[in-house]
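Here is one chain, start to finish.
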Amino acid sequence: MRDDDKTDIGGSQEAFLTTHWSLIESIKAGQDKDRALIGLLLERYWKPVYCYLRRQGHDNEQAKDLTQAFLHEVVLNRDLVRRADQTKGRFRSYLLYALNRYMAKQRLKEKALKRIPKEKLVHIDLVEPPALPESIANASAEDSYHYAWLSALLERVFLDVKAECDKHEMGIHWVLFYERIAKPILENTPQPPLSRLCKEYNIEDPKKASNMIVTVKRRFQAILMRHARSTVLSEDQASEELDDLFRFFPERAQHSF
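Its structure:
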């Protein structure tokens, strides 16, 4: 994610990042004069689309082209927005439904980009495709889509949590949380001993380090829920959304996060 995509927690952009259904309603109402709203949807959701298409059997270049074509033709040309039905509840499911409908109508290999003038293509950073763990890389297209969705969600959450820690001069708090909680889960490695982290970061005792980690964990949970809430309609659906997504991570993730 680029630096200019980051937002300050509770800052001036908080009103802008309401919910994705609210964004869609704003787009419908023509309130996206600089295409900022539609751009947010593009920026956040190309990875799940790309991973889904790869597992559908398309090679890297085909998946990149088809991802860009889908986002251009369906999202940018407003068809997705025009048909968006808030009663569907989950934007994640709605986007996958729209993608499947789009793919069913295309002659994939011959016409993916021919109808799109090159000068109108929206740039998407696909230089480094998302790296999926072996267990997911060999999974179904739909599971790859959901895993990539969760990974993109966590990436944004981690950036926001780190930004908040930096803002409040809690850099060591963040490092402890990342080294002890986040990194072992993301990389599926053992947790480092608190005693080692205390020695490495000059912290008085493990109890203090543990309290520092808990402080960041609470912020992480609040920000994670806010991001999940932005794609559904209610708090209950947000919890269900996270439970559904976290099944793609090791079981300990649900207890640690």
